[in-house]
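Input for the complex:
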Amino acid sequence: MTQYRVLPGPEHFLPPSAASMGIYLPNPGEAHINGVIVPEEKAYEEAARQFLMAQVPTIFPGPLVLWAWNEKAAKKAAAVRSLYETLKECVQPGQKPMLIPMPDYRPKYPKINPEVEINPNHPNLTIWHNKIDCCMFIGVHCHQANLSLKIIRGGTSCYTVAMCAQAGHEDAMLSFRDATVEKILKLGEWIRKLKGTVKPRLAAAKTGASN
Amino acid sequence: MAETKSHIGTQNKKGQTYTDPWKMLNEAPRKPSFYTGSEVIKEAIRRASCDVMIAYPITPQSEAAALIGELFAEGYIGDYFRGESEFAVMSQCAGAAFGGARVFTTTAGPGTMRAMENFPMWAGARLPIQMIVTCRGINSPLSIQPDTLEIAYLLNTGMLVWHAETAQDFFDWILKGYMVSEEPDVHLPLALCCDGFFVTHTKDVVNLTPTDMCLPPYDPYRSPVPCMDMECPPVRMMRDPFVMKSNYISYATHASWQQEVWAAVERSRKHTIHWLDGLIDTENADAEVMIVASGTAVSQGREAIRLLEDEGVRCGLVKVKSLRPWPAEEICEATKNAKHIFVPEFNVTGWLAKEIKATIPNSERVHAGPHVCGGMTMPPEIIVSEIKTALGLRSESLAGRGS
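Predicted:
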């Protein structure tokens, strides 16, 4: 039987959870790309490459970095902001980096404005409305992140990255684990390192919108 | 997510030292003690840094619940009270877990059934509550003697389900259970089952860890869902209930939520293997005749193997420790050489045999039985008799031994 791979969608009306298809989470020091375990260093490069290729690379920060509930959260929020600034500096004309918050999981549908925030229960709206083709989740509670990542995989062609502070996410196309301020900043360093070496997809490319 | 301060090396108010769980369970000196299973439950909870225990009397778990009340009186448990019914107890456990407490409770037979609605709710809310199920009869005519029928119902709740064979398993697995169920990628409730009376009300030598060591406290900030507060209680997720709608995204959310629970069961696999040293244990795995069992049927299976060896029949054994996650690959591997697979069970439906038949190739090899359907122990002789009959060997009539 062919090994299941976690690839950009749209996969299915309701894709299976990657964990149920035999995808395992990485151990410390590792990451996964498309469900294949790799050394963490390789994942930095690939995540940076995906961001620089994307037409609308987007960071989705969640409550665990948006709410200054402890000192580390505040430092992570500053690191996320730095990562976003780096991304803006490194993209080419025509690319449109975005930072879209996920401050609150409580349902707002149909009142959610997907242009300004993302909700884990209908993340595809935000992906579709903004034509996002690569995004990264950070500071999102693991359960809510898994829901969102799977729905995105099911209904859009967006490439998803998870920067998880715990064990990682199988339903992302690329997942880090044990995220720290240093790891967030290191991703920014990789983006800067690859600046100008990656050809963006730009207008000719397929967008995140798939409906 | 949170990186909170480690408590390891510090002391709780009872003077116990919060100890690295792996060192406590695998490296600390053990003291042999002659205890009943119920007393063993108490001793495990003494070392488990539980915040809340909620009790309701039903045989055969009442004694364990009462003994943990003593722990509360001694100051080892943060809170302890009796609920109004099993349903109330399980709801109250959910409330405590939503609030960020490490929760423990015990139940049995009809009590498990009465509370059943709560168990998929626990799993769906990702609450790492530990519940001891001291199995007993549930179907009429009632019996307070051991049966394992309630396990069949628990298998589809989204809970982790382990089935202990001995009091030693019980002691270790209560403590290890919290380590697995509280992992952020798991964070599911655990039903730790045993065959009531045979484990709870008989004495055995159990090797206990030092009383002055205990598990680190639960860290609710590692939960995969937000801790409850007045701004964002998890139950608020139903304020605008997506399940009440019939559009695509409402469906996708609810379906994905359910899938995520079962994904978490899968994620528990590597942690369970780590802590329980595998999901199964095997003996004579190359034998052509295998017994696959869980709970005390494993012990009876071992005795049956000894009796069969005396008669020149070589037989192997698979002890299924974890039912959820289900050890599909392990059972396939352990039974690959078997021509005959016998599944002795303490229940009338043969749920374990059904699970095994659905797992392995050439499932006609599986003989579902013998069954004692609760109410008595399983004499190893009836396992021997079942095997010999299936192999075409002459078997002595058990009835002929009469009293």
